[in-house]
């Protein structure tokens, strides 16, 4: 029982550590904060349920409860399941955030990633996603290559779209003389 309690304390410590890294750390600035919070919550629940259920329900070959053995097994199982939840939710959050910064419809792509089975939705997204825009020289917001004007500050984009060679309008007036 002491071992089970110690493991529970250890599990709580590990959960706090992982949750802290996921929520506060810069795992990915693309993943929206709510997705990080949901991922961390699911991970915490899975680990806690794993340890508690393992300690309470695990029985040895003689049919007796064996919390000292059950708690580590539960911790292991809960952590594995928790990591799957964590990666899955962070992946969904990444698709949503990445689609937004690429000016793609974020919610439909989130649903594709969520409901197309066997991770094919994720695959489809990464195959079909648009190229990442470069930052606007004036305001720093991302601009897709097709855009001629920044949609945030309206400044004209001088970079030639897709292989065409367009000379940037230089200072023609005042250059003479
Ligand atoms: Zn701008």
Quote the distance from N terminus to C terminus: 91 Å
Pairing-aware structural class of the strands and helices? mainly alpha
* Total domain units: 2
User: Roughly how much helix do the residues carry, as a percent range?
Assistant: 55-70%
Judging from the principal axes of the Cα atoms, what is the shape? elongated
Bound molecules: zinc ion
In the predicted model, the low-confidence regions spanning at least 5 consecutive residues are none
What percentage of the residues does DSSP assign to strands (E)? under 5%
Largest sheet, strands/sense/barrel: 2 strands, antiparallel
Give the averaged pLDDT, no decimals: 83
Number of strands: 2
Strands side by side in the biggest sheet: 1-2
Give the count of helical stretches. Answer: 5
In angstroms, what is the radius of gyration?
25 Å
Spell the H/E element sequence: HHHHHEE
List the helices and strands and how they pair.
Blueprint: H1 2-24, H2 33-57, H3 67-101, H4 106-115, H5 120-128, E1 134-135, E2 142-143
Antiparallel strand pairs: 1-2
Bound molecules: zinc ion.
Zinc ion is lined by residues 136, 138-139, 141, 150, 152-153, 155.
